[in-house]
Design goal:
This protein is an alpha/beta fold. 48% of the residues lie in helices and 13% in strands. The chain has four domains: 96 residues, Gyrase A, domain 2, CATH 3.30.1360; 163 residues, HUPs (Rossmann fold, 3-Layer(aba) Sandwich), CATH 3.40.50.620; 79 residues, no CATH class; 120 residues, Isoleucyl-tRNA Synthetase, Domain 1 (Orthogonal Bundle). Strands 7-6-5-11-12 form a five-stranded parallel sheet, sandwiched between helices. Strands 1-2-4-3 form a four-stranded antiparallel sheet. It has a three-stranded antiparallel sheet with strand order 8-9-10. A hairpin with a 2-residue loop joins strand 13 and strand 14. The longest helix is centred in the middle third of the chain and has 26 residues.
Length: 561
């Protein structure tokens, strides 16, 4: 990464100054390199000279941070990324990237192709990202798309940063809600054949239940009415689950999402893992009995003020019992180095309890990160669309995708950090104008493809002369190169924050930088074949950068629009 190269150059300069006895030999401080808020302060800035001055004073040496900054500037290698260096204030070092170095990066980007931007931050660590997990009791509300898009994009970013990633959907098919679903399904199935069977009082009222019943009737006839009701419900339960999961898989595929594994909660009970883990915790003194129920003694751990029931007094396990076993399976059985769970903000009270579980299992709580996301407000004609799943008035992920397209859905749901509420304007998302940011970015990519195709047709991309990047001296050309080279840092930022919303803003900025370059610099010019070749190579680099950014977000990069 560029910042790493700058840090290395500064460390080299400090060491060289010490070897020349221009600086006393003391341990070098941590070198922090940041992007200044004001563009005229350079591409990067560091306060290392002031920190070095403080270190020298503590060691009893004379110290002048501005003089130290000048020593650093004098000893910076001439062939690296650092060009002009300015000393500011009490000793800040403002760094401008060298034009010659920037020009050389164009060919590097083109040679990297779709690997451009990738960094080796993860060193192959094995991470799991679990997202959109839900009860298999019907279609997923459109708000779940935020969970899905956030998790899927994080997985893409982590892979680009050098992590091995597994994508998982946790199917909550062992709880009471799924029992209610099965009972509702039986009622709708019986009603289909004219039986007067009431839906459970807390059952699922949505019309989708009629569709499931119709499918079962078509496949099996009235077979399940020829047996006792309890037996019928037991047999319909897995069949209904498969129907829901089939439909859900189709829904998420509309968003371009494919999971590596659909993990069933019920498998934890079938394998005896829930009981095994509870026995383990009981032996450690972390499970206690009270009021006829079994409790995980979470209050023994920091930041948790109450215990949690794991086995109810009627012998039924809670979701929390499953969660304990599920995370034991993730870390102990399957051996993930780190797990990221994407949850809705309404689960925030569960976060400290999961930290307590990790500690109780002998695991570092820092290995589990729970990303909480806010709500999505669906806006149409300036008004929020109100929904109620229990009343059957539900808009699904697939319906929103069908209305505005997967690319618009993914882009809009990534525009803000997870903790923020998003207002998803359907009218804007459907617009084919520059007011719609995803359209603007995709159109810019298509525009580049058109430019390159035109040059190909006119023979300008087949010139025998190798593109000479030193011809790229216009301010807009250099600005575009600078913006392209930010991609590595954008990926690093998304990983560090576990929030990829910065990619949407970067994509728009990159598209603007290309459009400014195209406005200011004639790209295809038969009278200037050498300059055209250099600018076409820069255009190809810009296409690669835009395509990579869109790919990270799971958004298509069209070649024409």
């Amino acid at each position: 990464m560029i910042r790493d190269q700058i840090r290395a150059a500064i460390a080299h300069a400090l060491t060289a100054a010490q070897r020349s006895s221009l600086l006393p030999t003391v341990d070098l401080p941590t070198i922090e390199v940041l992007r200044p808020k004001q563009a005229d302060h350079g591409d990067y800035s560091t306060n290392v000279a002031m920190i070095m001055g403080s270190t020298l004073r503590k060691a009893g040496h004379a110290s002048n941070p501005r003089a130290i900054a000048q020593l650093i500037a004098n000893h910076i290698p001439a062939d690296g990324p650092i060009g002009r260096v300015e000393i500011a204030g009490p000793g800040f070092i403002n760094i401008h990237l060298a034009d010659t170095w920037l020009q050389r990066q164009v060919e590097t980007i083109v040679q990297a192709g779709d690997q451009f931007g990738n960094i080796d931050l993860g060193n192959g660590a094995y991470w799991q990202v679990e997202y959109l997990s839900a009860n298999p009791t019907g279609p997923v509300h459109y708000g779940g798309a935020r969970n899905a898009v956030l998790g899927d994009t994080l997985a893409n970013v982590l892979e680009a940063a050098g992590y091995r990633v597994q994508r998982e959907f946790y199917v909550n098919d062992a709880g009471n809600q799924f029992n209610i679903f099965a009972a509702t399904l039986y009622a709708r199935y019986a009603q289909h054949f004219g039986h007067d069977e009431a839906i459970p009082a807390d059952g699922y009222q949505g019309e989708y239940m009629l569709g499931y019943a119709q499918t079962l009737a078509d496949r099996y006839g009235d077979r399940f009415l020829q047996m006792p009701k309890a037996d019928a419900i037991a047999q319909l339960k897995p069949l209904g689950e498969e129907l829901v999961l089939e439909a859900l898989q189709q829904e998420v595929r509309k968003l371009g999402i494919e999971y590596d594994q659909w993990f069933r909660e019920q498998s934890l009970y079938d394998r005896g893992l829930v009981q095994e883990v509870l026995d383990l915790l009981r032996a450690k003194g972390d499970i206690g009995e009270r009021d006829g129920a079994l409790w995980f003694l979470a209050s023994h751990y920091p930041k948790v003020d109450k215990d949690e029931v794991v086995i109810r007094s009627n012998g039924a396990p809670t979701y929390f019992a499953s969660d304990i076993a599920y995370h034991y399976d993730k870390f102990i059985v399957r051996g993930f180095d780190h797990v990221v769970n994407i949850w809705g903000v309404d689960h925030q009270g569960h976060v400290p309890r999961m930290a307590a579980v990790m500690t109780a299992l002998g695991l570092d709580p820092a290995r589990l990160t729970i990303v909480l996301h806010g709500l999505v407000k669906l806006i149409r004609n300036g008004q929020e669309v109100k929904l109620s799943k229990r009343r059957g008035a539900i808009i699904t992920i697939g319906e929103v995708v069908d209305e505005v397209g997967a690319d618009a859905v993914r882009f809009n749901l990534l525009t803000r950090g997870p903790e923020s509420t998003i207002e998803f304007d359907l009218d804007l998302a459907a617009q084919t104008s520059n007011e719609n940011p995803v359209y603007f970015v995709q159109y810019s990519h298509a525009r580049i493809c058109s430019i390159l195709a035109k040059a190909e047709a006119e023979g300008l991309r087949n010139v025998a002369v190798t593109p000479d990047s030193t011809l790229l001296t216009h301010a807009s050309e250099l600005a575009l190169i600078r913006k392209l080279l930010e991609l590595e840092e954008q990926i690093e930022m998304a990983v560090e924050k576990l929030s990829p919303h910065n990619l949407t803003h970067y994509a728009v900025d990159l598209a603007k930088s290309f459009n400014a370059f195209y406005r200011d610099c004639k790209v295809v010019d038969a009278t200037e074949p050498a300059l055209s070749a250099a600018r076409l190579q820069l255009s190809q680099a810009a296409r690669i950068g835009l395509a990579k950014t869109l790919q990270l977000m799971g958004i298509s990069a069209p070649t024409s629009m």
